[in-house]
């Protein structure tokens, strides 16, 4: 028996996934994490808490499945992206890590683009506060004594890797979210690093996600009773790792994730940026492959907001809808409750209901929210098309994909079939385990990273496609009107 371990270093928890023969999930374990928000717009985490949580999750597997854990031959890592973990010369964190959803560095984004006019062309992305480079520019400006002591900057999963292997290593997909990577060349950019007064010495070495980054330290191998020190794969940023879990690695493979935020992800054969549309263009976690993402900030979060407002559980709201809506809601909703990334890159964007009347009820508001999120996904598809990328179909994943009404709306708005997987966990932890297996075996990722079985397909209803095309045009006109009204 040979097994593989995936570790997903998230924002709210660390999850460990133990996978056996035939890619069957043997067991999972998790340990929670806390986020600190010392000021409005700040989001920080104690880097050592990731290590404590990782220890706890693997210890749980050791207690429940010692035999299977002892057979681990490969470990993979998936991680929350963009987090800035600043280490001194002794590898000790100098301050809490600044996370992906921290927005304090908005001013530094503009300064970086002014300082490096080629930033977008090299990095393939607009400078946004979520990325790592602006965070370091903020630290240099506001905490110069911390910046001066910084010897290494690591992403969250790579700080855990340092503890696991003793090596400074990152992978291409996670590194692409720093704004220091030449994404087309898959190498650190001295020019981008210089814009934040850093050098190659501050960066970890780079490997592909399916390559080895080292081996588990002897101390930990013994602690968990593993027979032979397993290889630790490069791994990936959370979305790329989830794509590996979904088998979305060949060009054109796509998924739409209806989670707290929303992601329209598509794999590419080449580097294809569209910074004008706020498309994220990153390296994939498999060799010589890239991916694009349209990202919206409030997907199921929009429904949760309405749930709280109406004091009704979200599942009850969606159960009250016709599972196959016959026509659009009379109300239109902009889902910009916390600003928006794709396509507007506007942290000040705000949500709105339009078309309210005395007859508007809970069902109309709920359907409008689902439609507004679907229209935001249509925005993502539009700017992907502008970058020369189209998708024929996509897997639908995430909590929102459990709503039949939402799936029907999404299929009609996108005018694309949506494939629904058979039951299973195909997320970042599973994708990380798959990368651990490939790093250990040397298997061809494009031959072995197959998609999960399709349980069913939601086809776009043609009458709804036409109705939603008309409503989408009106939806697009709302954002500039609301923006100008609030200016």
Instruction: Supply the number of helical segments.
Output: 18
Query: What Rg is obtained from the alpha carbons, in whole angstroms?
Result: 22 Å
Q: How can the largest sheet be summarized?
A: 7 strands, mixed
Sheet/helix structural class: alpha/beta
Residue share in helix? 25-40%
Question: Can you give a write-up of this model?
Answer:
- The protein has 487 residues and is an alpha/beta fold.
- β1 (3-9) and β2 form a beta hairpin.
- 52% of the residues are buried.
- The mean pLDDT is 95.
Outline the fold blueprint.
Elements lengths: L2 E7 L3 E7 L5 E8 L11 E2 L1 H18 L1 H5 L1 E8 L5 E3 L9 E2 L7 H10 L3 H5 L8 H11 L1 H6 L2 E3 L1 H10 L3 E3 H4 L5 E2 L4 E2 L1 H5 L10 E3 L4 E4 L2 H6 L7 E3 L2 E2 H9 L7 E5 L3 E7 L11 E4 L6 E7 L3 H11 L3 H6 L12 E3 L17 E3 L7 H25 L7 E4 L6 H11 L3 E4 L6 H14 L3 H4 L5 E5 L3 H25 L1
Parallel strand pairs: 1-5, 5-14, 5-15, 9-12, 16-22, 22-23
Antiparallel strand pairs: 1-2, 2-3, 4-7, 6-8, 10-11, 13-14, 16-17, 17-19, 18-19, 20-21, 23-24
Helix pairs in contact: 1-7, 3-5, 11-16, 12-14, 14-15, 15-18
